[in-house]
Specification:
This protein has 7 helices and 19 strands. By secondary structure, it is of the alpha/beta class. The longest helix has 22 residues.
Length: about 325
């Protein structure tokens, strides 16, 4: 096992992790960043980004993440293409071990592990995951050219996915268990105006039906949430957009979290229940969940880590 003593360890590599790395490196803290399972985070599976400040034209999510990574590298961040498998926050310096056998001994830790898509947890869903069922329209929408697809959900992400899918699909059916959407008004207006989109209200997915050899999705069985009546629709694809779960299982029992496993931080701060451990981005933010707010928190975490190290070492 190789031991690496360092000032700041950043766990995760989305907008929060990369921005924390940029600020920590500029403060001459020589940060180490472990990029995790999905380097670049959720933005690497987002194509068109039109709400990140500083770009007049639409940019691509993967490109934005590559640029952030380059910037972090150029100012002196040390990158590790690895996965943190255990942490010990009992004493400072903090110990973090990785899959490849590295042991980081850190004065401060910034957690920026992000969040992951939530699934319906149906047996039939698991059967057709990757064979018609997806949680990312921007990754897989192209495969459903001129076909009928459904989107399950009622928030911003569900509406955005439905609108995106109209570029490819002949028809997009939004399935929502309630009688109104939670999405922003501007997105709802776009959705209602799009003649390729149909909405089925007060319904939930009961079962996905398809063929085994080769595996392919053919139908969805819906259940009305009011009267329990069921109905079938012929479809080729289903996109699940019912929210996200923070990637915090590694930190369970180590720091304070809320009932949904989001890391709790102090007001106007990224500091967690353990001094010297900070959390930034979707791992602690269930309200905004935007690239720009994650980046802002990454900056905050680095500045707070710098202050913590100066005061305690």
């Amino acid at each position: 096992m190789s031991k690496i003593e360092n000032n700041v360890l950043i766990i995760g590599s989305g907008p929060a992790g990369y921005t924390a790395a940029i600020y920590a490196a500029r403060a001459n803290l020589k940060p180490h960043l472990v990029s995790g399972l999905e380097p670049g985070g959720q933005l690497t599976i987002t194509t068109d980004v039109e709400n990140y400040p500083g770009f007049g034209d639409v940019i691509q999510g993967p490109w934005l993440m590559e640029e952030m990574k380059k910037q972090a590298l150029n100012v002196g961040t040390i990158f590790h293409n690895d996965i943190v498998t255990s942490v010990n926050f009992d004493n400072n310096p903090f110990i973090s071990n990785t899959e490849s056998g590295k042991e980081f001994i850190s004065k401060a830790v910034i957690i920026a592990t992000g969040a992951q898509a939530r699934w319906l947890n149906l047996e039939s869903e698991n059967k057709f995951k990757g064979f018609g069922i997806s949680a990312c329209a921007t990754c897989d929408g192209f495969f459903f050219k001129d076909q009928i697809v459904i989107v399950v959900g009622g928030g911003n992400s569900a509406v955005e996915e439905a609108l995106f899918l109209t570029k490819f699909a002949s028809k997009v059916i939004l399935i929502h268990r309630r009688d109104s959407l939670r999405a922003e008004k501007i997105l709802q207006d776009r959705l209602f105006k799009n003649n390729k989109i149909e909405i089925i209200w007060e319904s939930k997915v009961k079962e996905f039906i398809g063929e085994d050899n080769p595996q392919s999705l053919k139908e969805v069985l819906l259940e009305n949430t009011k009267n329990g009546k069921t109905s079938k629709i012929k479809i080729s694809g289903a996109f699940i957009a019912i929210g996200h779960d923070p990637a915090t299982s590694l930190f369970k029992g180590k720091i304070d979290m809320d009932s949904e496993n989001y890391i709790i931080t102090k007001n106007d701060s990224t500091e967690t229940s353990i001094k010297g451990v900070f959390a930034a981005g979707d791992v602690k933010d269930k309200i905004y969940r935007q690239a720009v707010t994650a980046a802002g928190m990454g900056c905050m975490a680095a500045l707070e880590a710098e202050k913590f190290i100066a005061e305690n070492n």
